[in-house]
């Protein structure tokens, strides 16, 4: 029986549908295309932020140094960087429906502690019974320890908790523990994929 649904954040609940703000900053700073994206989302500093080893302030200060930009412009960069993200309203509606059914909902995300602020800004924080951010628990997916922490938090055995994630690597790691999963791709109808578990809760 499925007791809990565990959701990812990036490219599941929120999708980057417009990358033009990233490119605009590349041009503004006179850097090669993709420089801003690499500094913010593909650097060792970002890994450290996701593991909670550097504070958000230290992370953005480091980004400013990597991009040779003024620190006073960092707040504007942060705002613009997320400006192309769009909330997956269909999935939010699904979350609300699951809550009405009495399902336990959890978020398990590789992210910095700043995700707490983003969730509040998006009005998503109240939708989850548990929010697990890698920066808080000190481990990132696909390390199976992250999934074990989530299972312990929601009080479910692996076969009782379903993961919804956009990473095949994360999905396979969860499956190795015996968790049922849904791999989210562009156009995936998560509600339809979940329906068999709701109609027939046996995994």
Q: Which descriptors would you attach to this protein?
A:
2 domains, 47% helix, 5-stranded parallel β-sheet, Rossmann fold, alpha/beta
The 3D shape can be described as globular
CATH fourth-tier homologous superfamily of the largest domain: HAD superfamily/HAD-like
Report the CATH architecture of the largest domain: 3-Layer(aba) Sandwich
Number of helices: 11
On the 0 to 100 scale, the average pLDDT is: 94
Record the strand order, biggest sheet.
5-4-1-6-7
Q: How many runs of DSSP E, i.e. beta strands?
A: 7
> Spans with pLDDT under 50 lasting ≥5 residues?
none
CATH class of the largest domain: Alpha Beta
Roughly what fraction of the amino acids lie in strands? 5-15%
What order do the SSEs take from the amino end to the carboxyl end, as H and E?
Answer: EEHHHHHEHEHEHHEHEH
According to CATH, the fold-level topology of the largest domain is Rossmann fold
Give the termini distance in whole angstroms. 6 Å
Return the structural class.
Answer: alpha/beta
Radius of gyration: 18 Å
Largest sheet: 5 strands, parallel
Helix percentage range: 40-55%
How many structural domains does the protein architecture include? 2
Q: Can you describe this structure?
A:
By secondary structure, the protein is α/β, with parallel strands linked by helices. 47% of the residues lie in helices and 14% in strands. The chain folds into 2 domains: 4-15 and 86-199, Rossmann fold (3-Layer(aba) Sandwich), CATH 3.40.50.1000; 18-81, DNA polymerase, domain 1, CATH 1.10.150. The chain has a 5-stranded parallel beta sheet with strand order 5-4-1-6-7, sandwiched between helices. The protein has a two-stranded antiparallel sheet with strand order 2-3. The longest helix has 12 residues, at 89-100.
């Amino acid at each position: 029986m499925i007791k809990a649904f565990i959701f990812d954040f990036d490219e599941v609940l929120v999708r980057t549908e417009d990358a033009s703000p990233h490119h605009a900053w590349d041009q503004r700073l006179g850097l090669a295309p993709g420089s801003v994206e690499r500094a913010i989302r593909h650097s060792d500093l970002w890994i450290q932020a996701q593991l909670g080893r550097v504070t958000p302030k230290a992370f953005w200060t480091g980004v400013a140094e990597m991009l040779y930009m003024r620190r006073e412009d960092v707040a504007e960069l942060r705002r613009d960087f997320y400006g192309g993200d769009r909330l997956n309203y269909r999935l939010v509606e699904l979350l609300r429906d699951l809550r009405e059914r009495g399902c336990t909902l959890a978020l398990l995300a590789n992210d910095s502690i700043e995700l707490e602020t983003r969730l509040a800004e998006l009005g998503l924080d109240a939708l989850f019974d548990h929010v697990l951010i890698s920066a808080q628990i000190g481990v990132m997916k696909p390390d199976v320890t992250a999934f074990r922490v989530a299972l312990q938090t929601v009080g479910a055995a692996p076969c009782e908790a379903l993961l919804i994630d956009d990473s095949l690597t994360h999905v396979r790691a969860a499956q190795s523990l015996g968790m049922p999963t849904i791999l989210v791709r562009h156009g995936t109808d998560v509600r339809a994929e979940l329906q068999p578990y709701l109609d027939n809760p046996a995994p």
